[in-house]
């Protein structure tokens, strides 16, 4: 097992390298960038963009635009919106954002910094990238944890019931509900919930944004808990619609596979009740794969569910942070977010595999042929 763990850890290095390299190349060909964003704001707002550099401070050398100069035409072919600006101003912007270096050098420097978990400063926020991610992470972790727990709480009893009633009317219509729920995009259902229950065209029962109310600090602890779940109701409902489908069908098929085995026939022949057979023998074996998949289910909900839902309900988590960072061309935040999420995903994958081996000793990755 030690050799397998070491092999998986070593494979994370080229995997991370490939993820970061592909993303870096895509960014190089994407239109726009932090320099162009500042230039666009300068052209449209008379220099307000300069105040956003370095998180609200002025540019490093106090550069100023030269609207009357003609030298800016030299840079117009490289940056849109650079006409009429002093070339020195453009160069200092490039130095400010690190674009004075070749792409390969910037990429290698980024990898070296990330290997030491040095993610630098945000381009447009007065905070380090790591502190910013740590600040936003609790919201996304909260959503991922709750959606995983709720989906398991629904999926396991429903899957067991469907296995016991396999082929019945209950099994057929619940399968239809599960499939339809899985097919409906979560963001579309979230918008529907907002229209129906968040002050749209019908009812105004739930808040439209955030995880807590503005007066949350003044509330008592029981009131804070109720307020927290009041804000979570619509986001979790939108996310849980499709989250429990896979686990439900997996639970059903796992129980069906165990029910058809010889030890179940023997237990029934000994006169054990159906409930004793189901929960005393079948349950332990059928739930192995479900329990072992919990880490993967959590990280899946953490990754896939947060982006659109956080944006729709204005939840200040990693999904909303990543979305706004892409729009702002805040590349340190974008790449650091990608790096940390990829690293967490790779480690959770390893933890999931190790969980399988602990729960089911018959699984041994060291004995397989590779």
TrEMBL record:
Signal peptide: none annotated. Its main location: membrane. One of its GO terms (biological process) is transmembrane transport. Pfam families: BPD_transp_1. InterPro entries: MetI-like, MetI-like_sf. Residues 49-78 are annotated as: Disordered. It is a multi-pass membrane protein. It is found in: Cell inner membrane; Cell membrane. Keywords: Cell inner membrane, Cell membrane, Membrane, Transmembrane, Transmembrane helix, Transport. Residues 137-352 form the ABC transmembrane type-1 domain. The chain crosses the membrane at residues 9-30, 139-160, 172-198, 228-251, 286-313, 333-352. Residues 49-59 have a biased composition (Gly residues). GO terms for cellular component: plasma membrane. Belongs to the binding-protein-dependent transport system permease family. This is Microcin C ABC transporter permease YejB.
């Amino acid at each position: 097992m030690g050799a397998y763990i070491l092999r998986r850890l070593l494979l994370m290095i080229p995997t991370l390298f490939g993820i970061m390299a592909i993303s870096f190349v895509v960014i190089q060909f994407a239109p726009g960038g932090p320099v162009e964003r500042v230039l666009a704001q300068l052209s449209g707002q008379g220099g307000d963009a300069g105040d956003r550099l370095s998180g609200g401070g002025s540019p490093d050398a106090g550069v100023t635009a030269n609207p009357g100069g003609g030298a800016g035409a030299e840079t117009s072919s490289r940056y849109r919106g650079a006409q009429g600006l002093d070339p020195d101003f453009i160069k200092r912007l490039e130095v400010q954002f690190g674009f004075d270096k070749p792409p390969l050098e910037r990429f290698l420097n980024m990898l070296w910094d990330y290997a030491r978990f040095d993610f630098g400063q945000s381009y447009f926020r007065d905070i380090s990238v790591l502190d910013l991610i740590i600040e936003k992470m609790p919201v996304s972790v909260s959503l991922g944890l709750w959606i995983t727990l709720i989906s398991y709480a629904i999926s396991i009893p429903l899957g067991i019931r469907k296995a016991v009633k396999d082929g019945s009317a209950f099994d057929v219509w619940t399968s239809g509900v599960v499939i339809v729920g899985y097919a409906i995009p979560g963001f579309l259902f979230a918008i529907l919930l907002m229209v129906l229950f968040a002050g749209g065209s019908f009812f105004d029962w739930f808040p439209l944004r955030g995880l807590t109310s503005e007066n949350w600090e003044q509330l008592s602890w029981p009131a804070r808990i109720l307020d927290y779940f009041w804000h979570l109701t619509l986001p979790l409902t939108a996310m849980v619609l499709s989250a429990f489908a896979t686990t439900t069908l997996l639970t059903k098929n796992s129980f069906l596979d165990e029910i058809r085995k010889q030890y179940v026939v023997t237990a029934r022949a000994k006169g054990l009740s159906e409930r004793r057979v189901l929960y005393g023998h079948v349950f332990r074996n059928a739930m192995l794969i479900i329990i072992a998949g919990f880490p993967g289910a959590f990280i899946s909900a953490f990754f896939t569910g947060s982006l659109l839902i956080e944006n729709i309900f204005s939840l200040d988590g990693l999904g909303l942070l990543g979305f706004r960072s892409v729009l702002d061309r805040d590349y340190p935040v974008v790449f650091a977010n990608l790096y940390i999420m990829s690293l967490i995903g790779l480690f959770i994958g390893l933890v999931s595999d190790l969980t399988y081996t602990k729960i089911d000793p018959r699984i041994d990755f060291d004995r397989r042929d590779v």
